[in-house]
Specification:
The protein is of the alpha/beta class and 359 residues long. Helices cover 46% and strands 12% of the residues. Bound molecules: zinc ion. It catalyses: a 4-O-methyl-thymidine in DNA + L-cysteinyl-[protein] = a thymidine in DNA + S-methyl-L-cysteinyl-[protein]; a 6-O-methyl-2'-deoxyguanosine in DNA + L-cysteinyl-[protein] = S-methyl-L-cysteinyl-[protein] + a 2'-deoxyguanosine in DNA.
Length: 359
């Protein structure tokens, strides 16, 4: 095929494309944003590919994986553009470690866990902490508590439940029991209600995020600085439920909720299990009717639900919401338009509103 002669002095468009710098830097954060193919080797890669940098004259940048595939080239074996990115495979490794902790009858040492996922103990510890927000030890402790709750509701005796949960000393457990359960195990067992709440904690750009669901739908989305505090908060809200760690399917739901945090304007059609008084439910429904990028005052909401005098009660219902973002109480401001408080911190509210405006 005849092509017009190229101007040999002009740089190839790839060399001047701002994305090319990400390839040279092997920038992991660019993974998923674009791909590149190399004509001389007949492969396509993700931006972070560790292989030797190609001559930009031979490189084409692609906006989509489909576009890269359409070259007819093969996927690079080193960076595996068709598989999980390094970050996603780290997440998979950490998820595996979490499952090991959850299913182990005994407490696993850091060395055991690191060995099981084929990482060095120090690297594993760092990766676990950066992925989950807690250390493996704290995660195991939180899980033992969840198992204990579970066991107390099922097992024959309190002592059996304590041993089954991996607490090896009855005495030590009783010392901590009131902190952990908010009541003695015997009382807890008597009052245990047969409901399972599944939860997982992840990190998002606003800090730690906890998502919890009943069989009917999402019951809580909590935001905070500290993953352990979120887990405690959930326990306080559902003192009678069995709290169980989410499985891989649940992690996908959590990933979608994290996506909602990053781009609240996109919305997310999540099944919610909304629990509150009839009045709270009316307020929360009115909140869900506020489109992204808009704000209303407490007075506006009071009028919308046909209770114009109940401004204070509306503010109370907004504060009592515990499904952050999906019930967008961040879209309610003071009557004078000023930013009012937010259960998860006014800075997070400001940032969510900024994202909805900016998008
Ligand atoms: Zn590659």
């Amino acid at each position: 095929m005849d092509k017009p002669a190229k101007d040999r002095t002009a740089p190839h468009p790839t060399a001047t494309d701002p994305r090319w710098r990400h390839v040279l830097a092997r920038d992991k954060t660019a993974d998923g944003a674009f791909w590149y193919s190399v004509a001389t080797t007949g492969i396509y890669c993700r931006p972070s590919c560790p292989s030797r940098a190609a001559n930009p004259d031979h490189v084409t940048l692609h906006d989509s994986l489909d576009d890269a595939r359409a070259t007819g080239f093969r996927a690079c074996k080193r960076c595996n553009p068709e598989g999980l990115s390094a970050d996603a495979s780290h997440a998979a490794i950490i998820a595996k470690a979490c499952r090991l902790i959850e299913h182990s009858e005994t407490s696993l040492s850091l060395a055991d866990l690191a060995d099981a996922v084929e990482l060095s103990p120090s690297y594993f510890h760092r990766l676990f902490k950066s992925t989950t927000g807690v250390t493996p030890k704290a995660y195991a402790a939180a899980h033992r508590v969840a198992r204990l709750r579970d066991g107390l509701d099922k097992a024959g005796s309190v002592t059996q439940a304590i041993y089954a949960a991996g607490f090896n000393s009855n005495g030590r457990f009783y010392e901590q029991a009131s902190d952990i359960l908010g009541m003695t195990p015997t009382r807890y067992k008597a009052g245990g209600r047969d409901e399972e709440i599944c939860f997982a904690i992840a990190q998002c750009s606003l800090g730690a995020i906890l998502v919890a669901s009943s069989a009917k739908g999402v019951v809580s989305i909590l935001l905070g600085d500290d993953a352990n505090a979120l887990a405690e908060d959930l326990q306080d809200r559902f003192p009678q439920a069995h709290l169980v760690g989410g499985d891989a399917d649940y992690d996908r739901l959590v990933a979608r909720v994290v996506g909602l945090v990053e781009a609240p304007k996109l919305g997310l059609d999540l099944p919610l299990d909304v629990r509150g008084t009839a009045f709270q439910q009316r307020v929360w429904q009115a909140l869900r009717d506020i489109p992204a990028g808009r704000t209303l005052s407490y007075r506006d909401i009071a009028e919308r639900i046909g209770a114009p005098k109940a401004v204070r009660a509306v503010a109370g219902a907004c504060a009592a919401n515990h499904i952050a973002i999906a019930i967008p109480c961040h879209r309610v401001v003071r009557n004078d338009g000023a930013l009012s408080g937010y259960a998860w911190g006014v800075e997070r509210k400001r940032e969510l509103l900024r994202r909805e405006d900016a998008a």
